Amino acid sequence: MPAIDKRISKTLKFIKSRIKFKPELGIILGSGFSDAVNIIKKKQIVPYHKIINFPVSTVKGHKGNLVFGKIANKPVVIMQGRVHYYEGYSMNEVTFPVRIMAGLGIKTLIATTSVGGINKRFKTGDFMLIKDHINLLPENPLRGKREDVFIDMCGAYDKKLQALAINAGKGMGLRLHKAVLAALSGPSYETPAEINILRRLGADAVCMSTVPEVIMARYLSLKVLGIALISNMAAGISSRPLSHADVIQAGKKRMKEAAALIEGVIKRIDG
């Protein structure tokens, strides 16, 4: 993909001219997670709209900043909000930020997201670790003329990082489900019939993001930890109409725990 590779080079040159340290970890803050950026020390904030070629978030709750600094004395880069396929972006654009973070030097990616709960044992406000996913999006981010696109997706979600997250959760009295995430394109929420199908396929929760980023991260040999907040129960399970406002509100209620969990994981990562 020569055209997009040229764009990546220009974007990396732009960022590196302004940011003078090399991040080791990348964090994507999804819907409702935005305020977790407050755990970062010595912040340097670069809005997406000021970065050459960088896609800009258009969804409420995605502030659209690239934030650099330290968490637990480790250099990190945080995406304060992501872009989605349903916004009209191509998969190349959706995963462009992951390629930029890899180009900046990260080796580990923590991807957070708010999801609809399908597993009836879950409840709103629960946290889950993504142990696997079911990709039902209409396009794969690796589609096109690339080398070595036939990547193995077994172990896409790193088990050692999951173990660190479980330990971090125990340290703060937080139970984490380990579950399977399904991804659909959105932006409409699923119907009850669709949720029944997803349950039969083995999905415990559903979202409209994250999976393309994980596929790209796997292609780039990054270790991935997926953390999801059950922001609502899915259609046919929820007793109220689904709304994005409820997703944002659920995130605000659990933001203190989300931030502490992320920080706890990073403290436990060696190196």
Keywords:
7 helices; Rossmann fold; 5-stranded mixed beta barrel; alpha/beta
Total DSSP E strands: 9
Average per-residue pLDDT, rounded, comes to 91
Question: Any low-confidence stretches, pLDDT <50, length ≥5?
Answer: none
> Based on the structure given, which CATH architecture is correct?
3-Layer(aba) Sandwich
Radius of gyration (Å): 17 Å
Explain what you see.
The chain is an alpha/beta fold. The protein has a single domain, classed as Rossmann fold. The protein is 31% helix and 25% strand. It has seven helices and nine strands. It has a five-stranded mixed barrel with strand order 5-8-7-6-9, surrounded by four helices. Helix 1 packs across helix 2 (91-104). The two termini are 33 Å apart. 45% of the residues are buried. The mean pLDDT is 91.
Q: TL;DR of this structure?
A:
With 271 residues, the chain is an alpha/beta fold. Helices cover 31% and strands 25% of the residues. α1 packs across α2 (91-104), α2 (91-104) packs across α5 (211-219) and α3 crosses α7 (255-268).
How are the SSEs ordered, and which strands pair?
Blueprint: H1 2-16, E1 25-29, E2 41-47, E3 65-71, E4 74-80, H2 91-104, E5 108-117, E6 127-135, H3 159-171, E7 176-183, H4 192-201, E8 205-207, H5 211-219, E9 223-233, H6 244-253, H7 255-268
Parallel strand pairs: 1-4, 1-5, 5-9, 6-7, 7-8
Antiparallel strand pairs: 2-3, 3-4, 5-8, 6-9
Helix pairs in contact: 1-2, 2-5, 3-7
